[in-house]
Amino acid sequence: MHILIVADHGWINGGQAKVAIESALGLAGRGHRVTFLAAVGPLDARLARAGIETVCLEQVDIDTASSRLGFVRQYMWNAKAAATLKQLLADMDPAQSVVHVHAWAKAISPSIGPVLKSTSVPAVYTMHEFFMVCPTGGFYDYRKGETCRLAPMSRACISTNCDSRSYPRKLMRVARQASVFAGGLRHAFRDVIFISDMQFAAAQMKNKATDDDG
């Protein structure tokens, strides 16, 4: 089996990257062919030592960009990530391959949605957070310090300053979320892996609210 793992970062900078990298190492250890695609380096040296094919786009993320204004294009629609993913998928046998996306919100962007929808290679997504549905990724109002009860991307959602930093940042995330919906990333995966029953229930409820509101 050939597994293509997609993540924002190629080194462990948090839980998402740790799960992505450790799973890549574990799968390679079981004899599978593994390719690891990351937008931001450096790459964890253990990947190459384990015989894993690595592809790093040598890009930045929202926290390391020298100019956040200049980063907006990548943040909204990372054309390089989409093109690279398409190229990698072209060499994969759909009957013997799978794409596993772990993280896209900090560097990869929603641009991979149309690519995943157009391929015959099955794709799975591990939902480490809620960026697939919620603009800020947490179903949480950081200003009030409480769980958000609003339907994602509703008028009430868009007009609410719930972001941990600023309302302009919230609006940028709203624009990016529109790309998630328009580009089809929400429906690009054959299966979604949830980390808990609570997360599954929350995502299902909010996803229905979003569809009903739209």
Brief summary of the model shown:
Helix 4 (79-90) runs parallel beside helix 5. The protein has a six-stranded parallel β-sheet with strand order 3-2-1-4-5-8, sandwiched between helices. The model has no long low-confidence stretch (mean pLDDT 93).
Topology:
Elements: E1 2-9, H1 15-29, E2 33-40, H2 45-49, E3 53-56, H3 68-76, H4 79-90, E4 97-101, H5 112-118, E5 123-127, E6 140-141, E7 146-147, H6 155-159, H7 167-183, E8 191-194, H8 197-213
Parallel strand pairs: 1-2, 1-4, 2-3, 4-5, 5-8
Antiparallel strand pairs: 6-7
Helix pairs in contact: 4-5
Could you characterize what this model shows?
The protein has helices at 15-29, 45-49, 68-76, 79-90, 112-118, 155-159, 167-183, 197-213; strands at residues 2-9, 33-40, 53-56, 97-101, 123-127, 140-141, 146-147, 191-194. With 214 residues, it is α/β, with parallel strands linked by helices. The chain has a domain at 2-133 and 184-196: 3-Layer(aba) Sandwich (Rossmann fold). The strands form 2 sheets. The chain has a 6-stranded parallel β-sheet with strand order 3-2-1-4-5-8, with helices on both faces. The protein has a two-stranded antiparallel sheet with strand order 6-7. The longest helix has 17 residues, at 167-183. It is globular.
